Amino acid sequence: RFLVSLPPYNYDIISTYRLFNQTILMELLERTHIGELAQHIGQIIRIRGRVDTIRDQGKIIFIMVRDRSGIVQTVAWFGDEDLFKTAKTLTAESVIDITGEVKEAKQVACGYEIGIKTLNIDSLAQTPLPIAIEGEHVDNVTALDKRLDYRWVDLRSRRNQLMMDVATTMGASFRQYCVDNGCVEINAPRVISAASESGANVFEVKYFDRKAYLAQSPQFHKQMGMASDLERVFNMGPVFRAEKSFTTRHLTEYTSFDVEMAYIDSYKDVCHFEQEMLKKMLADVKAKYGDKVKEVFGIDIKVPEGDFPYLTVAEAKEKLAKAGVESKDTGDFSPEEERAMGEIMEKETGSEFVFVVDYPYARRAFYHMRDSENPKIAMGFDLFWKGLEITTGAQREHRIDVLKKNAVERGMELDGQLKDYLEYFEYGCPPHGGFGMGTERVVMKMLDFGSILETTYLPNTPNRLGKLLSKITTGQAKA
Questions:
Q1: pLDDT tens digit string along 245-302?
Q2: Quick check: 207 and 191 in contact, CB under 8 A?
Q3: Which residue of 123, 213, 304, 369 could cross-link 95, Cys pair, CB 3.0 to 4.6 Å?
Q4: How far is CA 227 from each of CA 118, 195, 400, 421, rounded to the nearest angstrom?
Q5: How would you write 91-118 as a 3-class SS string?
């Protein structure tokens, strides 16, 4: 009990008490993360982690151990028979608990290693592993599918560990920016009574004795916040799209960062909010993980300066035509057009981001406000980053008479599924607008992953639902 009360750095005293067995020694020492070992040269510490690689040299065994903070070489010598026997049974990816002395070792990359004093196996990994954890970047559909079959193993790689860290920092930065700018966080329901975008591409679910839907977005409930005088709201959570899209950028469930703002004068107020939000998010990621991203991915995170450029749909199509890019749709962009537009705008303006505006109203949701001078144009935008759409936003129609008229023109029944939504506007609602941003797409572009499936913790697609997996046929995935 005297030893337990010792200050954390007096581990050398512990080593003199040989009467303590392995279990007691481990209980006396709190875990030290591998990334902190440089502070403990010459001290006895305890690390817990996973076996990365093993090199058995006969009378000495080198065990590379990793945790979330780093990797270190540990050494077991033949002189301790029981310890050496335990070390001989280790397999790659086994989970172990080690105590030992941190020693300087110039021959090791990090400059130190651990001489093992006690070794306990928490969990022995089976061999062989179902997939290789580290290696060349996977851009092959079949290989990626196999990795997703064993996603919990795949996530152990340095690339994926860092990807999860970056996504976490993005989420924290988004929330903090919204709070700092007067937003209230809402938790919109994911099971809803009416489809929020249209009657198609929704998942129907049985809700007791009635039909319900998985939310395509928190849109209706964000607008409820505007009618509730919350003025600015944000929401982070899953949204669902029942689209049979076998592409590298579509999911049936993804995480959306959503914002809605009241008392705007134009959708460009929303654009400005998102622009500054993204600058903050990228700056936070760069500050915390910029060096690691450069080391692991070979990418310099670029934090934008100044305002993002704007293009109308017509202007974008004109630029694409001049560049020789074929267009089959005057009101939207193919993946090839998006990539080309990103390259053109970065070359012309130096910006990786571009707001595209003046989309045909017929191609947008019925609750988007129309241009008063040209009702065929919607008062909304898409934001593209590095040639990929990451956001859709708009000024919403807040006038109940106009909103009903728009819904009727789309063939919607006012007394049907829209009844609850339309009631939000019956007792006055301020002018407002907002956006939704797919976070997995943002991470994919930031870290240059080949597929959105790689930047999703456990991706759901038309052929993949949690761990209930069916194989994607080679060649189905498209850009």
A1: 888 899 999 999 999 999 999 999 999 999 999 999 999 999 999 999 999 999 999 9
A2: yes
A3: 123
A4: 63, 19, 12, 11
A5: CCCCEEEEEEEEEECCCCCCCEEEEEEE
pTM of the full predicted structure?
Answer: 0.89
- Hey, what are 53's tokens? 């690689």
CB 29 within 8 A of CB 44: yes
Beta-ladder partners of 213: 192, 204
Give the three-state DSSP class for 450. Answer: coil
Please state, in angstroms and as integers, the Cα–Cα distance from residue 142 to each residue in 150, 225, 470, 477, following that order: 13, 45, 12, 10
Torsion of the alpha carbons at 174, 180, 184 and 189, rounded to the nearest 10: 10
pLDDT digits (tens, 9 = 90+) for 413-471: 898 778 999 999 999 999 999 999 999 999 999 999 999 999 999 999 998 887 655 54
Per-domain residue ranges of the chain = 11-123, 141-469
Question: Domain 141-469, CATH 3.30.930.10 — does that match?
Answer: yes
Look up residue 138 and give its amino acid. V
> Any idea of the CA torsion for 207, 208, 209, 212, to the nearest 10 degrees?
0
**How much is the pLDDT for 119?**
97
Q: Shortest CA distance to 453 belongs to which of 193, 247, 291, 188?
A: 247
